[in-house]
């Protein structure tokens, strides 16, 4: 059958790979006799997960050999046909090819399947006539024969070269190995890879295979008519299916039309029923709406009356709210007016202080100038007298006058050596800032911000009687220490660490107490019982002191200092005592005058200065007052309200103010045999008690400390050496 088939009888699709839709490249034969390119088959095999795949053409299931796509046979017959088709295309397209014999590039005219290359006309004649190419003659093809269109597959097979050994491609295949699926092998393979295999001559094997195929073809012919008639049977069945489908469609349509007619009849009856029902409902609606209108008007009248009352009540409530709001606004306006008046009063006071300070400084400068003039006059007289005596060159004059000159020389030299450190301070003076914000309120924080132990005070049993803050943010504390004949001045930081500490001997026979207050940025004033006063420099510990009894001849024998305060604006230091008398010094400890407090006072246990007023705690009198002092005269302004807590008799003993002039005072009382202490806060005018809180029962001193932009309230205890820090919050 194949020998009678012409190549032109085969369709183009016969030579096309069903996967890549191109001519086969190294075609591999599947068990179903369909073919795939080797690379296409390789991709399909890789995609297989169970060792099988289906043919793209007939869906026949194929098993994948152990060596993958290489296990499928190469279709040499298809390969030969494809070579011929390529030759045909080259001839028809007049392609230029290089002749394998003369190497000239010319239009192809012949092809040798033995050489597997093209030949020109001349070389083709030599190729088929020369005995050297005897074996090539059967395999040489004149390409113009292709146009005759009578080339059969048998003729093509005859001129194509026999297959070569797969293992030795240069050797012609001589046998077929049936063990390896009829693969062509050479003689050398029979002693190597295919030794012991079932080997056959290709002619014998071809005859055997042909006979086996003929029996299969005969069997196939038996079923040919059945297979070819199957499409007709399928068409007939499809036709019957369509006819039956049409019958079913007609039946369904008839049933549908019948049911639609029935439903439409029911819909007509329902429409009439709906019309009558809606009329009845509408009648009922009208009747009920009449009743609703009657009820509506009745309820509406009641509701109007109700909301008239609500509106009246609301108006009254908002009238009251407006009244209260106006009162509040008036209070705010009143407070603002108070602040304006306070600013005006501050301006007047500061102007008065400024003028007074200027006059004081001018007077001091004039006194210094007069004094200097006198010293200069003494010097000029001294030099003139000395010059005249020395010019006399008289021995008697020398012996009589020079001793007097020498005697006058020493005090003159002392006067000339004298320094005037106050001269620099007299060039300017400080005045409070009138633009300082006056807060509406200052509140002490509920809890302590910190509680620290001052290093060594508890263990060494040192006492604290006084406290002051220096301008560098540190704290100065004073009091008694061990041994008992010494007092101390200590400089600490906020964490309780001692930065500097100095001890001073005390005068025997007196209770050891030392008090202090700030004088300038780096200096504090301190007083110690009975009558010591001095200035301490926190930077280097230098201390200049004197006895008040040495300066004031009228100092009574049993008088003792109890406290000290300073006014940096007026450059004065005020010393309180165990009497009604206050002793005033300037910033260089020069005594100025004595002021007597009003009769209500017993003694001064602590003093602080607020503007023009002195705030004084009278411990023995159990009261606290604000007093105006002008020179030696004093006038009481008001008495501080005593705290009403635990029904105890509270006694004031320490007082201070913050930068906004709010006042803080420590009080003590004995309750059930135990000493208790509290802290009170007063308004800026001192007439209103704002808050009261319990504090450590050993608390002794209170002061304020400016830290960056925040002000803190500091409290220290007398015996256990604890320091409490509270925040002051402006509202």
Automatic annotation (TrEMBL):
<dbReference type="GO" id="GO:0008270">
    <property type="term" value="F:zinc ion binding"/>
</dbReference>
<feature type="coiled-coil region">
    <location>
        <begin position="293"/>
        <end position="364"/>
    </location>
</feature>
<dbReference type="Pfam" id="PF00097">
    <property type="entry name" value="zf-C3HC4"/>
</dbReference>
<feature type="domain" description="B box-type">
    <location>
        <begin position="94"/>
        <end position="136"/>
    </location>
</feature>
<dbReference type="InterPro" id="IPR017907">
    <property type="entry name" value="Znf_RING_CS"/>
</dbReference>
<keyword id="KW-0175">Coiled coil</keyword>
<dbReference type="InterPro" id="IPR047153">
    <property type="entry name" value="TRIM45/56/19-like"/>
</dbReference>
<dbReference type="InterPro" id="IPR018957">
    <property type="entry name" value="Znf_C3HC4_RING-type"/>
</dbReference>
<dbReference type="InterPro" id="IPR013083">
    <property type="entry name" value="Znf_RING/FYVE/PHD"/>
</dbReference>
<feature type="domain" description="RING-type">
    <location>
        <begin position="17"/>
        <end position="59"/>
    </location>
</feature>
<dbReference type="InterPro" id="IPR011042">
    <property type="entry name" value="6-blade_b-propeller_TolB-like"/>
</dbReference>
<dbReference type="InterPro" id="IPR001841">
    <property type="entry name" value="Znf_RING"/>
</dbReference>
<keyword id="KW-0479">Metal-binding</keyword>
<dbReference type="InterPro" id="IPR000315">
    <property type="entry name" value="Znf_B-box"/>
</dbReference>
<keyword id="KW-0862">Zinc</keyword>
<protein>
    <submittedName>
        <fullName>Uncharacterized protein</fullName>
    </submittedName>
</protein>
<keyword id="KW-0863">Zinc-finger</keyword>
